[in-house]
Amino acid sequence: MSNIEFFNQLAKSTNTYLNTGRMSLFDFQVYRRTFDDINKKIGLKSGDRVLDLGGGCGQIASYMARHVREVVLADGAKVALAIARKNLSRFANVTYQLVDITVLPLPFENNSFDHIVCYSVVHYLRDHNEFERLVLDLLRVVKPGGKILIGEIPLVDKAQAYFEERRKKPFLNFFLNARYHVKKFLLKAMYGFGKVDETQTTGLKYTRPVIQTILGKIPGMRFELLEQDKKLPFANSREDLLILRAV
Ligand SMILES: C[S@@+](CC[C@H](N)C(=O)[O-])C[C@H]1O[C@@H](n2cnc3c(N)ncnc32)[C@H](O)[C@@H]1O
């Protein structure tokens, strides 16, 4: 099963609050918090045209749409897009496009977006070459001076450091491990056991040096890795990559 088929299954499996795979069962503010964290890093303006690439069922786009002139929500999963279209029907400034991010160039004009958000997506690529090619194409599509936020990238080095620290406090570690397994079990129960097959999805890993090596050789831009709001579900192991295309 491809990643895209997995996300089609996930989109169908349960209500929209849970179907992004976030382990945030009891944080009903998780999408607002995520949007606020993104907006703090980009600084969206009311006249902006923004691409939400891999936007899934549109939970984050629903906040974006209130802040900008236009949102293009692009995703490879048809079912997710159909759900987004239904849930966001009150926003006349959102359009929907079926796009596979591994098929390049992306179907967008050069310099056509003020900013691009690609959140919690690039670990579904097959390898780092695909990541590099995607970044190069996003730099073509974003306007000069525009920002690309590639959010929630799993960083192996960050996760390792976090778990090493955690193991030094065995009681807390035991509690956090137990909580993780309870949440995972509840999430699977809500998806309907066996209805969503996670086993075939990619979990492409990144490290800070890998990102530095890939992006360090690309001219015409600056980049930095930024921590997430500590309340976000993956803040201990993931970071957001902010790329600024030179003017
Ligand atoms: C974890 S979800 C993130 C959704 C949304 N950005 C968010 O953070 O709530 C990952 C999204 O990436 C999309 N995706 C994965 N591989 C893709 C591909 N090759 N082309 C387009 N979209 C893809 C999935 O369909 C899914 O909607």
From TrEMBL:
Transmembrane segments: none annotated. It comes from Candidatus Wildermuthbacteria bacterium RIFCSPHIGHO2_02_FULL_48_16. Coiled coil: none annotated. It comes from the Bacteria. This is Methyltransferase type 11 domain-containing protein. Residues 51-150 form the Methyltransferase type domain. CDD domains: AdoMet_MTases (cd02440). GO terms for molecular function: S-adenosylmethionine-dependent methyltransferase activity.
